[in-house]
Amino acid sequence: MSPDEIRILLDQVREGTRPTAEAHRALVAALRAAPLGDLGFAKVDHHRATRQGFPEVVLGLGKTPDQIASIAAAIAGRGHPLLVTRADEAAWQAVHALLPEAEYHQQARAITLKREVPRGRGAVAVASAGTSDIPVAEEAAITAELMGNDVVRLYDVGVAGIHRILRERERLESARVIVVVAGMEGALPSVVAGMVDVPVIAVPTSVGYGASFGGIAALLGMLNSCANGVSVVNIDNGFGAGCIASMINHL
Amino acid sequence: MSPDEIRILLDQVREGTRPTAEAHRALVAALRAAPLGDLGFAKVDHHRATRQGFPEVVLGLGKTPDQIASIAAAIAGRGHPLLVTRADEAAWQAVHALLPEAEYHQQARAITLKREVPRGRGAVAVASAGTSDIPVAEEAAITAELMGNDVVRLYDVGVAGIHRILRERERLESARVIVVVAGMEGALPSVVAGMVDVPVIAVPTSVGYGASFGGIAALLGMLNSCANGVSVVNIDNGFGAGCIASMINHL
Amino acid sequence: MSPDEIRILLDQVREGTRPTAEAHRALVAALRAAPLGDLGFAKVDHHRATRQGFPEVVLGLGKTPDQIASIAAAIAGRGHPLLVTRADEAAWQAVHALLPEAEYHQQARAITLKREVPRGRGAVAVASAGTSDIPVAEEAAITAELMGNDVVRLYDVGVAGIHRILRERERLESARVIVVVAGMEGALPSVVAGMVDVPVIAVPTSVGYGASFGGIAALLGMLNSCANGVSVVNIDNGFGAGCIASMINHL
Amino acid sequence: MSPDEIRILLDQVREGTRPTAEAHRALVAALRAAPLGDLGFAKVDHHRATRQGFPEVVLGLGKTPDQIASIAAAIAGRGHPLLVTRADEAAWQAVHALLPEAEYHQQARAITLKREVPRGRGAVAVASAGTSDIPVAEEAAITAELMGNDVVRLYDVGVAGIHRILRERERLESARVIVVVAGMEGALPSVVAGMVDVPVIAVPTSVGYGASFGGIAALLGMLNSCANGVSVVNIDNGFGAGCIASMINHL
Amino acid sequence: MSPDEIRILLDQVREGTRPTAEAHRALVAALRAAPLGDLGFAKVDHHRATRQGFPEVVLGLGKTPDQIASIAAAIAGRGHPLLVTRADEAAWQAVHALLPEAEYHQQARAITLKREVPRGRGAVAVASAGTSDIPVAEEAAITAELMGNDVVRLYDVGVAGIHRILRERERLESARVIVVVAGMEGALPSVVAGMVDVPVIAVPTSVGYGASFGGIAALLGMLNSCANGVSVVNIDNGFGAGCIASMINHL
Amino acid sequence: MSPDEIRILLDQVREGTRPTAEAHRALVAALRAAPLGDLGFAKVDHHRATRQGFPEVVLGLGKTPDQIASIAAAIAGRGHPLLVTRADEAAWQAVHALLPEAEYHQQARAITLKREVPRGRGAVAVASAGTSDIPVAEEAAITAELMGNDVVRLYDVGVAGIHRILRERERLESARVIVVVAGMEGALPSVVAGMVDVPVIAVPTSVGYGASFGGIAALLGMLNSCANGVSVVNIDNGFGAGCIASMINHL
Amino acid sequence: MSPDEIRILLDQVREGTRPTAEAHRALVAALRAAPLGDLGFAKVDHHRATRQGFPEVVLGLGKTPDQIASIAAAIAGRGHPLLVTRADEAAWQAVHALLPEAEYHQQARAITLKREVPRGRGAVAVASAGTSDIPVAEEAAITAELMGNDVVRLYDVGVAGIHRILRERERLESARVIVVVAGMEGALPSVVAGMVDVPVIAVPTSVGYGASFGGIAALLGMLNSCANGVSVVNIDNGFGAGCIASMINHL
Amino acid sequence: MSPDEIRILLDQVREGTRPTAEAHRALVAALRAAPLGDLGFAKVDHHRATRQGFPEVVLGLGKTPDQIASIAAAIAGRGHPLLVTRADEAAWQAVHALLPEAEYHQQARAITLKREVPRGRGAVAVASAGTSDIPVAEEAAITAELMGNDVVRLYDVGVAGIHRILRERERLESARVIVVVAGMEGALPSVVAGMVDVPVIAVPTSVGYGASFGGIAALLGMLNSCANGVSVVNIDNGFGAGCIASMINHL
Description:
CATH class of the largest domain in chain A: Alpha Beta
Largest sheet of chain A: 5 strands, parallel
Order of helices and strands of chain A: HHHEHEHEEEHEHHEHEHEH
Number of domains of chain A: 2
Oligomer: homooctamer
Radius of gyration of chain A: 24 Å
Mean pLDDT of chain A: 85
């Protein structure tokens, strides 16, 4: 029952053209059955998209190029920014054919289509330990950029040569939130969090072999960080980290 | 806004003692903010309790005897059946002082207070492999009984002496649903499910040592059952199994 | 020794054409060696197939197309419904050549051949969280349909947008048993079980990456469900869940 | 070489009472050996403490009451806010004897001593699933309060009765960051994150039994959350979550 | 239906005092319902006990002293050898009061009561790596002795001083089957199996700390043995190994 | 120093052609440096091969066809029986070219070349649960046959249809040792061991999916067997089981 | 601020051409901001490379042939020794085209380019258990050789034939440090460490199947070694072990 | 056969008082049966003890105070240094009563009795991350000291305040080998190994909670270290690390 329908009903009651008992029954039924969507949930989704520049995200993993392309076209048609993660070359070809203005980020395996979105208040820093961690770091960086954030990239600053990250102290301190990406022992987030006083989002990667167990070693290292301010997302989840960083930077 | 309040509001609108615009505002707000409980969820809970004899359950684990006793008294005060699981002697003393009519089931470590509830349509069978599995089996059996089911107990029928369970075929076939409780290798549910054509709810127990890993071996065995009709609940979760069995038996 | 053979023997004894001692020896031996199949087990299998429409199921995993096709043809020859799970395109081609009336369900990777079977009493609902969970959900749905159940499909109702499942309350309540399929964190069964009072069969899927560990995260989530009425089957075991749901719906 | 020592050296050079070559040698050596502490790191620590009201935290686990009390007295002596986590009754007695103005929070097992600290900009919400999760939730809430944040507590809003959390939508939306505490299947953070557009810090708890594996099930569930905006801290790490939430709320 | 009953029935048929049809019905029913016990299974149990001296074993774990004592007395009453494993001092006191002729083996935590049993054909060797492994080794040795085997004990012959086991080659070669007990890395069975050509039963123990994970390291080491002839039982399962060794030695 | 050399030396000492002191030095040195091979270890290897018909085994996994073929030819050249496990079609072609009298067992992926070897005393039974377990069962059976044992095969006797294994009781009892192969929940060895009184060698297979974890579920089930007489080998290690069974059967 | 700049500043102070206060400010700022690199860290790296012959190592895993080749050429251009690990045939072709003097070690999958480097003081022994462990052993050996060490190779000396390693005692004792490579149960390091009194670096390999879990069994075995002097590196990390052995041998 | 016995035999042969054939038989038998201890292994043990000051170590875990004391007295009686690890107060009292000159190290839970032993060539550094790691670090330090090494202790230098370890660069560089002890994420060894060019022995500790899993997180972090020169020992194995460090320092 829409606000307009309620108004009409009330007018009828006031005018005596509709029995009170019947109006009562209709209103009680409407209250009971109130579709949840009307309670604001769908609006939250919409609100978020327009205020924060939150793109609609397509996880490319396990979808065919055709499926990805048609979803992407639908999103672009609504005027929203677009992000496809875990997109391979074939997916990119399919999307490119429908959306020539989209871009492909090969290292990050991401397809984007930028739109004007609200800007974050400061910068998001993205640091990564080794060169093999860069694809995940780029997924985080591209996600944050698409959502309206300035991104400072600090790559190849792993703890085995501790001077590399120490040299970047000023750039780290310039950020409002820092995404730290590392595989193997996953020690970089602890070191970074000890140098700054902003939140650190740690992303373990599946980089490594043997007892790295596809990223478990790095994940456990980060969950057990002895430094304050470190929270963790799933292994290789650059998108998730970029998204949280953007949320924080838009506060 | 309760049905009575809506009736008063409509009367006021009809009588002209309340402006339509104000009534409209109040009704739209009520619709938007409709407490979910009014949408039927709380009623579902209530409905379930009165129709199925579903007791309100208190997980005794990690609560003090005083806390358990006061919750139990509150439930009993509403006229509902009562079930406290994982209740030790001290909890029982505390509950007994407030509710003299309650019963304590030592093996199952459960406190119950029976009420008249709707009866299930057939019997629930509860089978267990070894004597050490009996406490969990009893938790399932007592739960099912409290919820209004006839329970057939088949204890100490583990697969190492296969003739023991084979002898019970008729009693197994007399049930509408079977709870099978086993630790160690957890093989009994597969054998039982191969003998009957009703659903089998498998309960792994933490009985065993070494590579039983506190019930993981039995849990994995049951999840990988080669027989049709086996679903599984958490380790030592006799209550959960008894509850599902009762749901099925009340269909 | 078949009933007919016993009759002949008794006739011979009565007529005196066979010595009592010899007949005695033969009967005692028959009792001792009574093939178990004669004790009713094989009949149970047969009974189940004819009364419930229980198909003979072929797990396609690890069989060659030729093996699958010849088993399928044998089953169809007995007039039973047929279900091949985990069947790829090649298996389908081989089966199709022998059984032109069989059907292939691409998403569920299942081959079916329907027969007249006893109908379940109500509906089986199959809900799934994400689009990637649909193949497993379809395996469950097709299994249940083949076994004579009406199936209500509720796809893409994951908990990240909680209003999606809330909107489906009525359709959920219309079912006698609900199969809930989810990967990643596997939270949907808890939410669904809190909304209804019928049994929920939870199916974890291997959908996800990183710390989903091929479905372990979802499996553990479901086993630890805080809601009553949830039991769990193996990862990706849509068939198992559909089969249990059908058993319950035929009670 | 302190700033004062440099000044004296420069005066000597200017006055000609110290040879330039010798002064040069001393300065170059000082530069090379510059103790890292002078480079600002220790100051960062100090800066953080005075600007954010960041308390010095003592992890009580594995320390004797005497050790805890003497560390606590030292911190209080510096005028900083104090937080002792995982403090049992004995530790509290020892601290109380030295610091009569300290407070003990029994559920959270935390000792605090408040000081005037900079206030966060909005509110921190702390939601928890079950009553057994409250100690961890309280650790988070008390941490955030001590660091200068208004805290909104939403307890016992687990997903098995989904209407409980839905009812709290307005209070959730009033927060700038939300800490969500849950054991068992750990599904609450996904549901909350789908309802709001602020960061969610998820805290798995060791509440549960059997296949909860001391919190692993909840941890995995949270890491695999299908909702955007969820990052995770260690099992039972209420302090860590409260600390990150405060950092975000002070941005 | 017993052989005697069948004889009477046949006599009646022959004499015409019982209708063939009725006799037919009775015999078919008897065949169908043949209690499994009559098929020889229970006899197997009995046969084993009397031929091999196989004791009836009571797993003391999780039973009260009174329960253990009454079961033990019942077994002794049947004239069978008795073995109680995992029996603490209190259990021993309770058994001793009822069965003064029983013995307690403190290291092995086992209670035994010997009987005349068939002797094994050769010797069983029991080797253990470290002094902490001796309780499990003793459980194996006592089990084998009680079952009628000569036992050769070779203790403290771990691989870190490889000359210790090499010196025992002759005694190892004198055995028909060898039980090898080891914790930590569990390497001893591989070395022993490479020195002899009889079966080796490997028993991992929970001796160790840290990454021994309560015996998992030793268990995995033994399962992956590069030597031929090694099979493995559960962690700390000295009884199981002794029992298998006796079976082999009685062949 | 060979026996002949010692004889010459002693002759020289007796004849006085060699100084005692020098002979003493030579003998003491020889004792100290005694090559281990001379102590009988290598002979043990040889002894085993000739007395038991123990083949020299080549694990084909991770070797090129050429490597396998040349090793196989070398073994055959010594007149020993040959067994290549995990051999694919290409390996077979390469071996066949050099050893035309060798045989290929496709299901077991094994190449054999038989020789006259000592016969075992009784039969080895090999039972397997499902059709997918047959390759591993065949590896065990072929290994045992090659080592001189009569093998009784009992395939497709899994516990989901318990009558199948019960029907085979006589054939099981005819064996001196039983290899039981099963994947999924791995329950068959417990049932078999409860039916017989000879040793059971359990072989878990990697057959299954999801929570079977590549055979871990079956492995744990077998290690936790509640039946006496079960020992376990590595996942899919048919060869190992066949080899142990042969050892036992040759005692 | 470079030494020269400090000298100029001091001259200006002495000459009175620069105010002391300003010079003071500049020096204090320089001290605070002293780039960490000036503190000697980068020099350490350089020093190590030239003194120890420490090669710059390229982990080939996850890099394209072109990437590997261009990095390799850059390293070679600096005159340093070169080591590319985990290099396949394609990578070798690409490197060979740019650096014709490089060598490819097929078994070790390593590319090297030797340079004159400081020699270690003694020998490094590399022992391996089975033939399948040789690739990892070769990676260790080649690493050590490239870093200036004499390497003694002892391959195929696994514990199943214990005489093989015992025969090598003298060669083992000739080394200053021993790398021991083993898969499956990983027992060889314990045996070797019990025979010598020099450090043993244990390398678990992923050789094995089933419950070897890709090297976990061997890893755990080595971590739990009962022998003194054993430390462990990651699974298959031959490079790491060779590198540590060289460090020790250069002390 | 001892050297003296050989001399007598040779004299008898030379004198003709013993037949050559009989002497031959005796010598060949002696060679074959040469007890391994005579081959030098026991001497190696002795050699190690006297040359390196290697103490005989008693692992106190799982031994009674009386057992520990009598073993300790026996060792001290041989004049060797003594080390008892994992010794509680009761063990210390028992040892102290017999060996008044022994010392107890409360934090390290170690009992020592020093003797004159060969000195290592340089210093051993022992660094630890947090105060809770000190007991394990002390076990390493005391072990190294007892074995004749100068020990440099660097405690509380964890990576969360990276300046703490950076300040200690000179002291780290002064050591020939460094033991690094850390719990939680275990990142310190990577940072240290990147700062020096000597071997780093990493010791994970069980310090932490939740997802530290009793030291597994730290263990995995160290095994996956991205820095060169790190090898790892078992969780909490301070003794093992101190022992290896001493071996290296005595080279």
